[in-house]
Amino acid sequence: MCFEHPEYLRLFWGFPLLVAVSFYGLLRTRYLLGQLCDEGLREHIVVTRRPLHEVAIRLVPLLATACFLFALAGPLRCGGNHGRLDIVYVVDISMSMSAADTHPDRMERARQEVMAIEVGRRLGGRAGLVGFAASASVFCPMTADREAFGLLVRRLSPLQAQHQGTDIGRALELAASMLPDGGGIVLVTDGEDHGSDAVATARSLPGRGIATLVVGVGGDNPVRLPGSFAEGEVTSALDRHLLDALAHEAGGIALYAADGADVASTASRMFRALSARRAGDAGGVGGVDPGRGAMLSGIVLLVVALALHGGRSWQVDGKNVKFSSGPDGRFSRSIKSKR
Question: Taking a C-beta distance cutoff of 8 angstroms, is the pair 219, 191 a contact?
Answer without folding.
Answer: no
